[in-house]
């Protein structure tokens, strides 16, 4: 099973319009309200495909009540942890050409007892061999040191740990000792450049930066490269892949669907006897396919897998180290 922990969930309000004009009245063509937060998005994507998952999240305030109501409609198994603060609401403005502008609230301030209860609920939801995916920003009151301690406890309990966070939380986590590091991290190029203090202009630069994290003790580094595709580096090898789409509609939540696709692919491979390096290729292909499906969908929540014949086709190959990135990171 895959358990997700979302320390800072939200209700996401997405407004679709032709063009956003600053300083003027803009009229939305359509509006959607969806449950969100990176771990919530991962669990929802997994749930739509029948992959066993449970979402653990803090709940408080009017938006928290709305979030629980929205999640219960989906039948996603959840473990809500009550907090005194209020869950945030976020707004995404999506233009007709796919350009997305996000306005995110900071979220609540968690008490020390609430952080402890949240981590305990996540650990209690897991069994040895499960994945625990800790995803998204850390709200005020949830310190990076508490994240490191949670990773240590989870690893000692026999769990596989994936972390998808950014900024100070990611930097401090990756500065820890090998036993404090997760099994998998999923940075984008800018987060990877910041974590390794390297300029990334080519695929070779990304591979080398990923190996820096592996040398510190991270087993698997899964790097999302936006329109360039994705890179997977672990002890068995290095793989680069793409899954082109005819038109990008909305990129919000696509990275979460990408991670969900990888974890679903990993579980499918683990269920088959005799794993090999080709299993990682299949997991990366699954991640790319799920991400490509997500960016063609208007909402944040993963829409589910279409019939195989209509799914985006992922192409996996050895990375060309000289290939330039369309969006270099420094």
Highlighted features:
16 strands, 36% helix, 10-stranded mixed sheet, alpha/beta, 330 residues, globular, UDP-N-acetylmuramoyl-L-alanine:D-glutamate ligase, 4-stranded mixed sheet
Secondary structure elements and pairings:
Elements: E1 2-5, E2 10-17, E3 30-36, H1 38-48, E4 53-59, H2 61-74, E5 78-82, E6 88-95, E7 100-103, H3 112-125, E8 131-135, H4 144-156, E9 160-164, H5 167-174, E10 184-185, H6 189-196, E11 200-202, H7 203-216, E12 220-224, E13 230-234, E14 237-242, H8 254-270, H9 277-295, E15 315-317, E16 324-329
Parallel strand pairs: 1-4, 1-8, 2-6, 4-5, 8-9, 9-10, 10-12
Antiparallel strand pairs: 2-3, 6-7, 11-16, 12-13, 13-14, 14-15
Helix pairs in contact: 1-8, 4-5, 6-7, 8-9
Describe the fold and architecture:
The structure is a single chain. The longest helix is centred in the C-terminal third of the chain and has 19 residues, at 277-295. 36% of the residues lie in helices and 25% in strands. It has 330 residues and is an alpha/beta fold. The protein has a single domain, classed as UDP-N-acetylmuramoyl-L-alanine:D-glutamate ligase (3-Layer(aba) Sandwich). It has nine helices and 16 strands. The mean pLDDT is 93. The protein is globular, with a radius of gyration of 19 Å. The chain has a ten-stranded mixed β-sheet with strand order 5-4-1-8-9-10-12-13-14-15, with helices on both faces. The protein has a four-stranded mixed β-sheet with strand order 3-2-6-7.
